[in-house]
Amino acid sequence: MCGRTACALGADRIRRACMYRDNHGRTRQPEWRDADKYSPSYNKSPQSNSPVLVSRRHFEKDADSSERVIAAMRWGLVPAWFREADPSKMQYKTSNCRSDTMMEKLSYKGPLIKGRRCVVLADGFYEWQQHNGKKQPYFIYFPQPKQEMADGKDDDEEWKGWRLLTMAGIFDCWEPPDGGDALYTYTIITVDASKGLSDIHNRMPAILDGDEAIRKWLDFTEVSTQEALRLIHSTENIAFHPVSTIVNNSRNNTPECLVPIGLGPKTETKVSTSSKMMLDWVKNKSPKKEEDDLPRWSSQFIQITAPKRTSAGLMHQWLKKEEGDPCAKKPKTQ
Q1: EC number(s) per UniProt (predicted)?
Q2: So what's the pLDDT on residue 88?
Q3: Which of these, 3, 22, 135, 205, is most buried using a 10 Å CB contact count?
Q4: What percent of the chain shows pLDDT beyond 90?
């Protein structure tokens, strides 16, 4: 399952991290829709708005279906057929949908048949391991390339930075029966956990690993539902580390949620003194940096070689080198 995520990049840097090549081989950055509805967060829960990739064709009928946009959508799918005036009155949870039953349930089958497939973007997600009556949280993410951040121009094709996790999702558009703005919502597809994650939880998000999988999932006019569903499976290309129980409360929204901790009978569940100092530095650094001064970020969508598995220490480097990012300020609580 997936009940909490982290997405701490600012809107502009999410665009940079999502660079891709279109059908003509041109490097593109997807445009935003409703970027003002998105707030970076180290601890996102259902009902909050998150960035998702979708085909531009969903919003512009004459657009190339291979072109991508980033939309801020609410987590927890509200089906188009829901007739209550208040979508919060839904009697069942739709933050996740099981891959083995989604074609049997109208809430998910309908949008899938319409091609409403999306890619949910996040730094990673949290999962809780139950042991002896206690729950230990873990942060789960893509293995990161062994590379250092470097400055570059806006049109650089190989920026360096944290690789976003790309999860397969389904979205729908609900319109209030009495009129008003349409509400776009999504659900994350889940599958049986991979062998590496099965000791933590028996379910995991369906992760799309690489741009070809992302392209096929999004391009609903060229790739049929049946073909796209072949992309839905577990993956072993994943890394994780235990984190502090501070993440258990969704109101806690600080970089400390992501920091690796040690486990063991003699180890308290808290970050080290050095990590505390680093976190204080991250939280207190100046938010007045101009966008052009920001470190550049890499894009998994135009990688040439597969990323190498690295230690959780990269999380420290990632947080430390986020100087000047909009999310460096304490993000708004969702």
Answers
A1: 3.4.-.-
A2: 83
A3: 205
A4: 60
Strand runs (DSSP E) across 198-314, as ranges? 203-205, 239-242
How many CB atoms within 10 Å of residue 225?
A: 14
**Rounded to two decimals, what is the model's pTM?**
0.81
- Range in 4-18, 218-232, 248-262, 308-322 the model is least confident about: 308-322
Cα–Cα distance measured from residue 302 to residue 9, given in angstroms and rounded to the nearest whole number: 19
Cα–Cα dist 297/145, whole Å: 12
Average pLDDT over residues 227-250: 95
Identity of the residue numbered 279: L
pLDDT, tens digit, 9 for 90 and up, residues 242-292: 999 999 999 999 999 999 988 876 444 344 343 343 344 334 433 333 333
Residue with the two structure tokens 């998994």:
300
End-to-end CA distance of the chain: 20
* Residues taking part in catalysis: 2, 127
Q: How many CB atoms lie within 10 A of CB 233?
A: 13
Phi, psi (degrees; rounded to nearest 5) at 171:
-125, 165
Q: What is the DSSP code (8-state) at residue 243?
A: B
User: pLDDT higher for 206 or 317?
Assistant: 206
What would the two tokens of residue 12 be?
């502009």
The Cα–Cα gap between 87 and 297 comes to: 37
What's the CA gap between 141 and 163, in Å, rounded?
Answer: 9
For residue 323, give every residue at least 6 positions away whose Cβ sits within 8 Å of its Cβ, in sequence order, or none. Answer: 285, 289, 295
Copy the structure tokens of residue 44.
């996102």
Phi and psi for 196 in degrees, rounded to 5?
A: -65, -30
Task: Please give the backbone phi and psi of residue 199, each rounded to the nearest 5 degrees, phi first.
Answer: -75, -20
Is a pLDDT exceeding 80 seen at residue 12?
A: yes
- Confidence (pLDDT) at 133: 86
Show the tokens assigned to 182: 């349409």
Tally of CB atoms within 10 A around 265: 4
